[in-house]
Design a protein that fits this description.
CATH topology of the largest domain: Growth Hormone, Chain: A
Helix content: 55-70%
Number of strands: 13
CATH architecture of the largest domain: Up-down Bundle
Largest sheet: 7 strands, mixed
Structural class: alpha/beta
Radius of gyration: 30 Å
CATH superfamily of the largest domain: MFS general substrate transporter like domains
Number of helices: 28
Length: about 800
């Protein structure tokens, strides 16, 4: 607090009515009041980011399951609400008799509204949402538009109230505390953002896995309530009689009520900073998972790192000195470009817990260094523009969030279509353009501008447009030797010269070459449900996750199959299928295969078709969002879409503990189960699955392309060998560790390991089979058991 002006040198509203209060007493009162306001801002920031993280996970069920779409929708609505709320409250803050009381009431109202959102998301609204989707499809309304309307309907009010808090906090500090140094506004944003960092880390690292989504939202509502009660208690302690009714240093109401629709240099810089900073954040959301895996903690680590370093920058802006705005813009641009060589030399560091998340942010700080400059620049621009704090901060914050929304939209829908190194160069060029623009304005004010220098900022803008156009018009997939990179809003697919496909930093599978896909997991997940089907009359098939096309391509070889609905959300696979038809088993050209480019959960809900086989591709269970295709709610949908006697095949691509909870959850829905590969490949049904050698011998005798392929593979060359692949029945633990939409525990193997270690299971959990060698399955299982009591 040493940077505050002395109370006797400025007006203050914290003073004794008798006028004989000592300097130390007045200073002590100011420190206590400022501390309580800071604590309220901290709680409010923590609640806001807990809400944002949980909203994204909760709405994924309704918004198509796409990580990009859901994250973009939630962040867009969140930021747009902040912007509208800030300008709305900024225009009204000066009219409040007591802004501190208004601040407290807004936080209490926000708590009540968030309780309503929690109740709505926790309710069984899935059927209603999917009914709206069916109506939209029948009317030709794009689902993306419906998703936007739903997100706005649910989140608009709480986000608007969140946006109202910062203008009220600024107005409170100016009128209730009598502060006059506008640079202290940076400290307000610092405290609020530090709370956001804590909310991000705690919600992602602990609350979601240990408590679930609904309880996390209740805690966030409780934090808003605590903030509101603190502020209302402070209102009672200070009283209303001594609140300054006219903002300091801004007696002219016309100046204070300057229209937010008429941008000056400060507003334009705020818009540009919002655009570049959120564009850079979207860039980090793409870049870092490519090196460090798209785990649930990775998103939180990027968000926490961005906010941590941004908060440091905005705190630095409250101090005297420091680089000028134009210098800071240049340094920020150079630091953004430095992330490209950083990515090249960076070594993988997967994040599997709260402490590893914190360690990641510290060790990978070069990625977040530009965020210090983003925060510093925002603080400088806000402080320079602040006269009437509530109104001016509301206006600047609104322009900043408008730029943020534009940055998210353009980077997500255009920037993600170009390689990541092109995206960061665009952001750097925009920062240079802002620097040139600010310099030109400054020179004009000083009458030293040359006529030609006025439009220097157009050069980097032109380079920006040229770079984007070049990336979109020409083939840039082969710029990195030894691999091809297909970029799009649904992810990044890298194909190496050896045929390995890496999807968002995770190895997926290999393209087929000379039928070497036979015997792989992709092939096995197609073959074993065929072997287990009770009648063998398989006509309609559904594949969830087309991937490299090996599973649907293998199933299409079965002569009885008439139609295969194959779902995938990654549109970049279209380019892969077009350029590598043989390696993907001609999946894009097979008349039996109907490729559906949406998430299976939405597609199967909208489509009542029933299937003889429903199969899910190997999915990394540690990947963010994997619980959506492994929850009880989704398994119930699968059960409803099976024909009588139909089977559901699922491969658990994860740890022993993750495979265990998959079996536990599946057993709650399907009465009958067979398993292969040490319990990692499950075949489930609503009716008994009977496999006997006599029946299998009849199928082996068929003249069918798929059965011929099965016979030609040594480990399944006979019915007896195929039966040998069956596991002994895997027992259930009945521990209540079930995957639900509200409890995505399968994505947190460390949490599951801790939970299972507390139970003395009467059996051991097997590791997955490392390779497909059925003759050695028994020996592999014996050598791969682990004791969960460790």
């Amino acid at each position: 607090m040493s940077s505050f002006p002395k109370p006797e040198n400025r007006p203050t509203s914290i003073r004794a009515e008798s006028g004989d209060q000592t300097y130390s007493e007045r200073s002590g009162s100011l420190v206590i009041a400022a501390g309580l306001i800071g604590l309220a801002l901290f709680s409010s920031g923590a609640a806001g980011l807990v809400n944002q993280v949980v909203w994204q996970r909760s709405l994924k069920v309704f918004l198509g399951g796409s990580e990009t779409i859901c994250a973009s929708m939630v962040v867009l609505v969140f930021l747009a609400g902040l912007g509208v709320g800030s300008v709305w409250m900024g225009r009204r803050a000066a009219g409040f008799r007591n802004p501190l009381k208004a601040f407290g009431l807004v936080e209490v109202l926000l708590s009540i509204v968030n309780l309503g959102v929690c109740a709505l998301l926790a309710s069984n609204a899935t059927a209603s949402v999917f009914t709206l989707q069916q109506i939209a499809v029948s009317l030709g309304v794009p689902l993306l538009m419906l998703y936007a309307v739903l997100a706005i309907t649910v989140l608009a009010v709480p986000c608007l109230l969140m946006g109202a808090t910062m203008p009220l906090a600024a107005e409170t500090c100016q009128r209730n505390l009598g502060l006059s140094n506008a640079r202290l506004i940076g400290l307000l944003f610092f405290v609020n953002t530090v709370g956001s960092v804590v909310g991000t880390v705690v919600s992602s690292g602990y609350m979601i896995s240990h408590l679930g989504l609904s309880i996390s939202l209740l805690i966030a509502a409780g934090l808003n309530l605590v903030a509101g009660l603190l502020l209302l208690a402070l209102t009672l302690a200070i009283g209303e009689a001594s609140v300054s009714q006219l903002p300091l240093d801004a007696p002219d109401a016309a100046v204070r009520k300057r229209s937010w629709r008429q941008p000056g240099l400060a507003e334009i810089l705020a818009f540009g900073l919002g655009f570049c900073s959120l564009g850079y954040e979207m860039y980090l959301f793409r870049l870092i998972p490519l090196r460090h895996e798209p785990l649930p903690f990775t998103f939180a680590a990027v968000l926490a790192g961005f906010l941590t370093f941004w908060s440091l920058g905005v705190a630095l802006s409250s101090r005297k000195g420091g680089p000028s705005v134009t210098t800071a813009l240049r340094i920020c641009a150079l630091l953004c470009c430095a992330t490209i060589p950083m990515f090249v030399i960076d070594s993988p560091m997967p994040i599997d817990g709260t402490w590893s998340l914190v360690r990641f942010v510290l060790m990978k700080s070069p990625y977040f260094l530009p965020c210090i400059l983003f925060g510093y620049l925002f603080g400088r621009v806000a402080a320079d523009a602040a006269k009437s704090w509530g109104d001016d901060i509301g206006r600047i914050y609104a322009w900043s969030t408008a730029g943020s929304c534009a940055g998210i939209l353009l980077v997500t829908f255009i920037g993600y279509e170009i390689p990541f190194y092109g995206m960061v160069l665009v952001i750097a060029l925009l920062l240079f353009a802002m620097q040139e623009y600010a310099t030109a304005i400054q020179e004009a004010n000083n009458d030293v501008e040359s006529k030609n220098a006025r439009y220097r900022w157009l050069l980097p803008i032109g380079l920006c447009g040229g770079l984007i156009s070049a990336c979109l018009m020409f083939d840039v997939t082969k710029l990195i030797p030894g691999q091809r990179m297909f970029s799009g809003r649904d992810g990044v697919i890298i194909l190496t010269d050896s045929g390995n496909m890496i999807w968002d930093g995770l190895w997926h599978s290999r393209l087929s070459k000379d039928n070497d896909h036979v015997g792989t997991n992709n092939w096995s997940t197609a073959v074993f449900p065929v072997i287990c089907h009770p009648t063998g009359k398989i006509e309609d098939v559904c594949v969830i996750g087309t991937g490299t096309g090996i599973t649907p391509g293998t199933l299409a070889k079965l002569s009885t199959v008439r139609r295969i609905d194959s779902y995938d959300i990654c549109h970049e696979l279209k380019n892969l299928y077009r350029e590598y038809p043989n390696g993907t088993l001609n999946v894009a050209n097979n008349p039996k295969i109907n490729l559906l480019w949406c998430d299976a959960r939405t597609g199967m809900t909208l489509n009542p078709r029933q299937y003889d086989i429903i199969q899910t591709q190997p999915l990394y269970l540690k990947q963010a969002g994997s619980s959506l295709l492994n929850s009880i709610e989704f398994y119930q949908l699968i059960s409803d879409r099976l024909k009588p006697g139909g089977v559901f095949s699922l491969y658990s691509n994860g740890s022993p503990e993750q495979a265990f909870v998959i079996r536990e959850t599946a057993d709650q829905v399907f009465r009958y189960r067979q398993s292969f590969m040490n319990g990692y490949l499950l075949v489930m049904s609503n009716e008994p699955i009977v496999i006997d050698e006599a029946r299998l011998k009849e199928r082996y005798a068929q003249h069918d392309p798929l059965w011929e392929e099965i016979r030609n593979f040594a480990p399944t060359s006979t019915a007896a060998k195929a039966l040998k692949a069956l596991d002994k029945p895997m027992p259930s633990g009945n521990l209540g560790l079930l995957i639900r939409d509200d409890r995505p525990i399968v994505e947190y193997p460390a949490y599951l390991r801790d939970q299972l270690s507390q139970h003395n299971l009467p059996f051991k959990l097997p590791y997955p089979v490392s390779n497909w060698a059925i003759d050695q399955l028994e020996d592999t299982a014996k050598g791969a058991e682990i004791d969960t009591s460790r």
